[in-house]
Amino acid sequence: MNLIHLSKDQRRFLRLVRDQPDTLDRLIDRLMFKPWRLSMWLRSQVFRDNLAEVMQILRRRRKLELDLAASAGIVTIARLMHDKNASLGQLLAATAAVELQQQYSRPRKAARKSVKMPSAPSRSLVHPDVPEDEALLHIQSLDPTHQPAD
């Protein structure tokens, strides 16, 4: 993060979002400032760029936490299969962690690029002043299956 062009409060806010993620209302209460200040900060491109960077860090951290939870969940499921005193809550939590990780890690389908097919012209491409026999010869010469007469 390039925090040089930010105010002290903006830096505090971004660090708090990064290090102690919480709801927006709670973050604002913790910093003890009015919500309109955040609205003003969001007008600044520099602040928005830094906030986007913080959000990217949070996405990476969330993915890591989910991957680790899924790994722990698989170990827990394997352990609970052989435990006669297994807790249903543990099994459900472990299963949920694995399912969430699978959903989150599923590769997104790339948007299919539509291939634009050339459409048939809505009108003749031959100028109206060209005689009909000359126009037909020209059209025939454009046909790749047409063999010129000798």
What pattern of helices and strands is seen along the backbone? HHHHHH
Overall form: flat
Which ranges are low-confidence, i.e. pLDDT below 50, for 5 or more consecutive residues?
none
Q: Quaternary status of these chains? A: single chain
Largest sheet: none
Please provide the count of β strands. 0
Rg measurement, Å: 32 Å
Strand content: under 5%
Provide a count of the helices.
Answer: 6
Derived structural class: mainly alpha
Tell me, rounded to a whole number, the average pLDDT: 84
Residues in helix, %: 55-70%
Distance between the termini: 75 Å
Characterise this structure.
The protein has 150 residues and is mostly helical. It has a domain at 8-105. It is 62% helix and 0% strand. The protein is built from six helices and no strands. It has helices at residues 8-19, 24-31, 35-41, 45-81, 88-105, 132-142. The longest helix has 37 residues, at 45-81. The N and C termini lie far apart (75 Å). The model has no long low-confidence stretch (mean pLDDT 84).
How would you summarize this macromolecular structure in one to three sentences?
The chain is mainly alpha-helical. The chain contains six helices and no strands. It has helices at residues 8-19, 24-31, 35-41, 45-81, 88-105, 132-142.
Tags for this model:
150 residues, mainly alpha
Topology:
Blueprint: H1 8-19, H2 24-31, H3 35-41, H4 45-81, H5 88-105, H6 132-142
Helix pairs in contact: 1-4, 4-5
